[in-house]
Every structure is written in C-alpha cells, then in structure tokens.
Amino acid sequence: MSVPPAAPSSVSARLAELGEFVRDSRAIARVEIRKLLRDPTELVSRAVQPVLWLVVFGQVFSRARGIPTGNIGYLAFMTPGILGQSVLFSAIFYGIAVIWERDLGVVHKLLVSPALRGALVFGKALSAAVRGLIQAVIVYLIAAVLHIGLHWGIANILAVMLAVMLGSAIFATFSLIIACLVKTRERFMGVGQVLTMPLFFASNAIYPLELMPEWLKAIARVNPLTYLVDVLRGLMIVGGESMHSAVLDFGVMGLVFVLLLFVAAKLYPTLVA
User: What is the C-alpha to C-alpha distance for residues 38 and 223, in angstroms, rounded to an integer?
Assistant: First the structure.
C-alpha cells in the first residue's frame, strides 16, 4: 500500500518552521558575538594558555623519549591536543554566562519570546563555535612560530575549522546543560573545575591511548575530546596519523552534539524554575 505524499501545506509549514529556527539561531548568535567584540579581554587571556603549554610544557616533554608519537615529534603530536584543550576550556565555562543572564532577567525575556527553545540553545552553540575559531587561529600562529609542520591546504584548514566549531558547540552545549542542573554560579564553578581536567587527561590530547590502562581507555573512547583531537591530528600535522577515519570522528561528534542539543533544549526553560 503506497503512502500518499505530504500535503503542500504541511511541507510549507515545515519549511517555515525551519526558516524561523535559522533566523532565531542567527539572532542569538549575533548578540553573543557582539558581546565578545565589545570585551575581547577573555580571548587575550585564553591565548596565554596554549602559549604556555606549547612553549613551556611542549618544549620540555619533546626531549623525553618514553612517549611513542609515531613519525612526528612530541611537540607536533601535542599541538592538536592543545587546540582541543583550548576549545574545551573556553567552552566548558560558557554556562556561567547563562546563569548570569538568568540573574539579570535576560533568560526570562527569551523564554517568553516566540523563539523556538532549540534555536535559543543552537544560537549560543554557534557563538561558542566562533570563539573556537579564534582559538584555532591562535594555535596555528604559535605552531608556525615554533616551526611545526602543518598542512596549509585549503581543504585541511576548512576541515580543521569545522571540527573546532563542532567541538566548541559540543562543550558549550554540555556546559549549558550543567548550568540548567546546578542553577548557581558557585556550584557551576565547582562542577566545571571537576570536569575539565578529567576530560582533558582522559583523552589522547597529550599522550596516545596505548599508554593508558584499560579502564582509562574505555573512558577515553566515550570522551568527545578524543575524537576532536584525533581528527585534528590527521588534518593539521604533516605526518600526523588518526586512529579513526575523519568520517567516523565527525560522525561521533555530530551525534553527540545532536543529543546534547536535544537535552539542552528541554532543560533550558527549567533554568528559571
């Protein structure tokens, strides 16, 4: 038995809803990006961290011979990991700004607006993705100064930017979920500090998974940062090798983002409860 095609009115309604979702998301992202442009001091402070890790930590540990990094030096090996770390650390505390907005009454105004709840969350994820791009530019500049072999092809750079944006969106959305659950800045800071270091060290950012005990490998395999660093290592570094294909890495990150976006959209209205 054949299924009748959807009515034109139904298709038009879905297209109109999609257009509304895109417009609302773009409006939220534009507001968040304007905040960043008015006060870029956060970006300056975030630039210090990758400089310290690559120039100090990387230079010291590049002299060690006990970390297997394949055909590349340790400094090149850790560069994608430091980019992943910068993305994680800058996005994971994104939720505290949402709690601040709640206290100022901004969230209440957004929730009574006709904007879709998913668009409110997706727009904030887009603005976090822009922040991630800035972190990527900083790490690229540092790596170039340190004469690390990078792929400068347009396709590689665009793929790296896409991966960074997706990773930033994942951790920012995860941060928003935490904010909706804990509801206060003090609790959020405590939870955020507890989560960042385990997420970083339970990944392949600064050492390969082969060095980990089995229980830590199991955690690393469900850590989205592992897949972000994996795809970055293959795309950024000359001679760098990924454990998985880029399709698999992007697929896992995309699936995680969709799941987190769905949960965040459900929880966002509870922030004011």
Answer: 34
pLDDT in tens, 129-151: 988 898 899 999 999 999 999 99
Torsion from C-alpha of 96, 134, 126, 113, nearest 10 degrees: 60
Query: How many structural domains compose the chain?
Result: 1
Residue 155 lies in domain: 9-272
249 is a domain residue:
yes
Q: Which of 193, 183, 13 is nearest to 98 (CA)?
A: 183
159 part of a folded domain: yes
CB 235 within 8 A of CB 151: yes
* pTM (2 d.p.): 0.89
Structure tokens at 32: 């968040």
Strand, coil or helix: 150: strand
Q: What is the pLDDT of residue 1?
A: 47
Round to whole Å and give the CA distance between 59 and 74.
Answer: 9
Q: Which amino acid is at 192?
A: G
Residues 129, 91 contacting (CB under 8 angstroms): no
Q: Which among 196, 130, 140, 190 has a CA at the least distance from the CA of 164?
A: 130
For residue 25, the one-letter residue type is S
**1 within domain boundaries:** no
Dihedral pair phi/psi, residue 212, rounded to 5°: -85, 150
Q: How far is CA 87 from CA 102, 128, 197, 241, in A?
A: 24, 9, 13, 21
CB 89 within 8 A of CB 196: yes
Per the document, the length of the chain is 273
Establish if 4 belongs to a structural domain: no
Instruction: Return all residues near 90 (Cβ < 8 A) that are at least 6 apart.
Output: 46, 128, 131, 132, 135, 168
